[in-house]
């Protein structure tokens, strides 16, 4: 704020010779202050009086609507929320795995790549695919929603019909991407 005041003062002083030619001398001599000053008045209240004042102020505030008033497809299935959910899921799983990988030698766990691959290969195909889908779907959903948000950041696609189509496409590509990563279809 101080730098802006200095800059404004410097600009005004530099422009003064040019402005003086066009403005009457009375206007230049007026020197109207640019800032307003008002005294601050404080009043001491007891805690009970302060609570009463706050209660009265709260009665004048608007009540925030509950999520139940919104359409489900715009809130719960909204890709912005699911981008965050899948991002947190992916990073949480990564932190959990890498943290346990660091602690594995202390507890005698075998989390090396070879032992994990051998254990994973011994699972039935449906369980194997289910685990891969639980990891692949958040990745695909996060990726396609991220691309959608990058396109929306350009300012395109904000029509209601376009949003619904893109939302459906993001969910479809997320599920299909998860299935492709899980089963290689």
From TrEMBL:
Record flagged with keyword Signal: no
SUPFAM superfamilies: Fumarate reductase respiratory complex transmembrane subunits
Any Gene Ontology CC annotation: mitochondrion
Superkingdom of source: Eukaryota
Chief location bin: membrane
One GO process term, biological-process aspect: tricarboxylic acid cycle
Cited InterPro entries: SQR/QFR_C/D, Succ_DH_cytb556, SuccDH_FuR_B_TM-su
Keyword field: Heme, Iron, Membrane, Metal-binding, Transmembrane, Transmembrane helix
TM region(s), chain numbering: 81-104, 116-141, 162-183
Gene3D superfamilies, sorted: Fumarate reductase/succinate dehydrogenase, transmembrane subunit
A Pfam entry, by short name: Sdh_cyt
UniProt-annotated location(s): Membrane
Gene Ontology MF terms: electron transfer activity; metal ion binding
Protein name per Swiss-Prot or TrEMBL: Succinate dehydrogenase cytochrome b subunit
Lineage: Eukaryota, Fungi, Dikarya, Ascomycota, Pezizomycotina
């Amino acid at each position: 704020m101080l730098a802006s005041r200095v800059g404004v003062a410097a600009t005004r002083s530099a422009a003064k010779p040019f402005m003086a030619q066009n403005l009457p001398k009375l206007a230049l001599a007026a020197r109207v202050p640019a800032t307003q000053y008002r005294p601050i008045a404080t009043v001491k209240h007891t805690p009970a009086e302060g609570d009463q004042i706050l209660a009265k102020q709260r009665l004048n505030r608007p009540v925030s609507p509950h999520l139940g008033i919104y359409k489900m497809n715009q809130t719960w299935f909204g890709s912005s929320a699911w981008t965050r959910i899948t991002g947190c899921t992916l990073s949480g799983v990564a932190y959990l795995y890498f943290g346990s990988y660091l602690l594995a030698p202390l507890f005698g766990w075998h989390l090396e790549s070879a032992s994990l691959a051998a254990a994973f290969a011994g699972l039935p195909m449906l369980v194997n695919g289910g685990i891969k889908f639980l990891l692949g779907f958040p990745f695909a959903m996060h990726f396609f929603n991220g691309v959608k948000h990058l396109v929306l950041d350009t300012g395109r696609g904000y029509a209601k019909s376009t949003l619904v189509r893109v939302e459906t496409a993001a969910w479809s590509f997320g599920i299909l991407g998860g299935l492709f990563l899980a089963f290689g279809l």
